[in-house]
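Ex. 9. Protein: NtaA/DmoA family FMN-dependent monooxygenase.
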Amino acid sequence: MFHMGWFLGDGFGIHPWSPTNGDGPWTGTNATDWMKPGIYVDMATSLERAGFDYILIEDTSMVEDSYNQSSETSLRRGFMAPKNDPLPLVPLMTQVTKHIGIVPTVSTIQYPPFLAARAFTTLDHLTEGRVGMNVVTSVTDRVAQNFGYERHLEHDERYDMAMEWIDVVKALENSWDDGAVIADPIAGIYADHTKVNPIEFVGKYFKCRGPLNTIPGPQRNVPVCSAGSSELGRVLAANYDDTQIAIVKDAADAKTYRQDIRARAAAAGRNPDDIKILFIATPTIAATDAEAHAAYEAAQAFRKTDKAIEYNLWNMSYTSGGRIDFGAIDPDTKVGDIDLSKQNGEYTSIAGLFGGREDETLREVVASSFQVKDMGLVGSPSTVADKMGEIMEEAGGDGFLFYLPTTRMNLAMVSDGLAPELRRRGLIREEYTGSTLKENLTAF
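Predicted structure tokens for NtaA/DmoA family FMN-dependent monooxygenase:
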């Protein structure tokens, strides 16, 4: 069996909302309802029915304006803004479910470790152990400037800071020893003060006395997720992650990536089975293979339109950390003539978009190179289920993270079309056996 997750890639933000933007015919009332709980509640109940381990909620805290040096495109088309804070969604989504985990994003430059440890321990109690934290370093200068920085830290330093941040959070989560809570109303003793201790952490980036001023949650240490595939991103994952998400091209690439992370985890003294790597995929599913391939071809054709190219250029500008304005570059410029070293964003994503294409023009690359892959998952539910099984068999595990437009149609296709086919093949769980996110991640 393998694990399943869903990437709410729009965060608690505006989802596909306009058919004229190429968002498709099933956008419903997203334009006016994205800030209300309805679609997130539907998502949680649908994906729990499908046996998913968790829903990962993306987040960013800025209005992107590096493309054409203006926020016009971002706000006109609803790219990454508007967006609400994801943490308040977590109790709403778990209140209507019993098993599925919810993993909101937390940035190490936005949340001081004490605030994060307190917030996520609180959510651990409110969800009865079904919350995780997606730890990110944030990408652009604009985010950093909203939190008191002149410019963002350089890529590698961001990861050094993030690992220290996790160390502080974990120390705070463990600042109450087992047995510290007595809660004896007859004796009138709530806690044993000798088992609640300051952490006295002093590092390069953070200083925190502690202890945490709330009791440990059901999971004690809230599961950590990350998505970095750079060298230091892999170091963080191997040392701290309970689950990691990764972008790969195909099954062979997934196998190589998984073997690398597991070897690093073993070298760090961890059990490699304690890290579940979910590979991001954007499947195209329809009632029949013919319908799915027609939809796939239509999507490929759309990617060459002005609207799709505008999005890809905008996304490349953001992915560079806002340091390269791809809207200001002549589209007939050869990739080899573009100074990609100026970036300070998602290094492996930029390499994946442009690597080996130095002799092509920006126009050629932008119409055919995309950050997230489909891994060949195109077809009917039966066909896609078979392909998923083949990929996991070659990769060795651990599962998939679906990244699809947030519409109720897509939720139905996965939960009521694909999931039953996966179950018939014994590829995903029939029922949940654990009561917490951590238990469900380690169930197999």
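Check your answer against this statement. The first helix runs from residue 30 to 33.
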